[in-house]
Write a sequence for this structure.
């Protein structure tokens, strides 16, 4: 599993290590194991990538494990949890102060 990466202020994306099996039909599951608000798991899917959305900006604790399984249902053990922090919201203080300076100078 790749280390989850912030995709902005409200998303975290990750990719499971690609599995292969002669029986085919590989599926991946991502389990949210963190303590941050809004994190969610994704049930079995053929896609090895997952993006968790609707998260809180500038927050750590978005941790996930992943598993894979083949068509007969044989599953790997869950990976070690890996964590990410969402990006902080943009600082708008300077822009607001600039507007106030303009208004006050008129």
């Amino acid at each position: 599993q790749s280390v989850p990466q912030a995709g902005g202020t409200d998303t975290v994306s990750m990719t499971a290590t690609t599995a292969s099996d002669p029986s085919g039909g590989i599926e991946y599951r991502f389990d949210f194991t963190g303590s941050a608000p809004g994190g969610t798991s994704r049930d079995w899917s053929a896609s090895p990538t997952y993006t968790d959305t609707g998260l809180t900006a500038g927050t750590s604790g978005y941790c996930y494990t992943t598993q894979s399984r083949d068509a007969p249902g044989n599953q790997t053990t869950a990976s070690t949890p890996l964590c990410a922090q969402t990006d902080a919201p943009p600082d708008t203080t300077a822009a607001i102060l600039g507007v106030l300076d303009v208004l006050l100078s008129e």
The radius of gyration is 20 Å. The mean pLDDT is 89. Residues 93-105 form the longest helix (13 residues). The CA atoms of residues 67 and 78 lie 5 Å apart.
